[in-house]
Automatic annotation (TrEMBL):
The keyword Metal-binding applies. It comes from Mycolicibacterium moriokaense. The lineage of its organism: Bacteria, Bacillati, Actinomycetota, Actinomycetes, Mycobacteriales. SUPFAM superfamilies: Cupredoxins. GO terms for molecular function: copper ion binding; electron transfer activity. This is Amicyanin. Transmembrane segments: none annotated.
């Protein structure tokens, strides 16, 4: 997953249970990835920083950038 132009790309990602998703910040501004349900939360990510999370439970995980809350994304985890 990339973060660029204040967008998550792709905005929706579908993966099987057990997948580790890595976000890479390609913007010149910092971002913090935060799941709306609190299941994952990155530290502040400067340019080229990465954050990884392994999804162990099926479901739909909506997240935002807590610095720029207009940035939204979803990870759909399938069995």
């Amino acid at each position: 997953m990339s973060i660029s132009d204040f967008k998550f790309n792709p905005a929706t990602l579908t993966v099987p249970v057990g997948t580790t998703v890595t976000w890479t910040n390609k913007d010149g501004e910092p971002h913090i990835i935060a799941a709306k349900d609190g299941s994952f939360h990155s530290p502040g990510m400067d340019t080229n920083a990465t954050y990884s999370f392994t999804f162990t439970t099926a479901g739909s995980y909506d997240y935002i950038c807590s610095i720029h809350p207009f940035m939204t994304g979803t990870v759909v985890v399938t069995k």
